[in-house]
Amino acid sequence: MDIKDNVSLAGLTSLACGGKAKQLIQASNSDELIEFLNSRDDIGGKDTEGGLYVLGYGTNVLVSDNGLDKVLVLRGGDISLEDNLVIADGGLWWDDLVQYVVNKGLWGVELMSGIPGNVGAAVAGNIAAYGQAVADSLAWVEVYDLVSKEIGRLEARDLGLGYRCSDFQTDRLKNKLITKAAFSLPDKPTTELAYQSALDVASELGLNPELLYDCRQIILEARGRAGSIYVPGGNHANSAGSFFKNPLVTKEQAEHLMSFDESGKTAKQLSEQNKLHGGDDLRVSAAHVLLAAGFKRGQSWGAIRLHPQHVLKIENTGGAKAADVYSVALKIMQTVRDKLGIDLEPEVKFIGEF
Question: 132 vs 210, 264, 270, 284, CA distance in Å?
């Protein structure tokens, strides 16, 4: 356990901006975390003044320039295979879990290879990619209640898992920290890789998506080509990944938005990808929304830029404040609303006062 005062949070987030933590608490596993929290009576609730802000690897957040009070950084932990369950600490790097699972010859998370963040964040956000989601294989989570200091277990069906969301993002489970997560994973395929861009990569590289190890390599290559690989401390663009969620629209809006696709895919292929990616063929790509609203890949506002390969990624090219990122995000949302009548919802979580 490492505890420090007045620590800049910019170096702990993938967007490389934000103020200071009055107190930074860093734990390397769940047992260490629980022991520490049990010894403190001044933590309080989560995401409240004087309470605790959970940062993890900081890959899907924008932290206010005004800073935060107590910040918990949970990075690291153990993983094991018990009977038919893979059980991982909440602080474990998500892709370490995927690699472990693939090496064990188990299926069910391979299409989510390379998604940044820890296991707890993956569950709380119900991450998904290429037609596969955490909800598909999650069995249960162990949670620590910040208020009662009790440890309990919640079944996956009781977590309110939906598109990019769960009840951990609501008042119902707000004060519960995910300390462990268990996944039920079989030794045969569960989800067919049908995402066209990934299949194109497979064909080009001569890889077989019906083979587990090949499937992981296909996904990692596809993510890499889209600028979507991030490892803490690596030489990457300062980005929080896709900044906005894919919105649900009308059939007419979907047809209009898909006409802005730049990949050369047919409307049928795009519709199928929408369904795979968001669970509904009318949950269109937010990238198409931005393009339809007039935004361009590589477009910039001072030190803020839309990624040249992926228009949904807002980058800090160097020296930008959190307020600058926030301002650009609001500008994009307002422009989309004014031009298209669509309300974009950020996938990135805003932490602190803006």
Answer: 15, 24, 17, 17
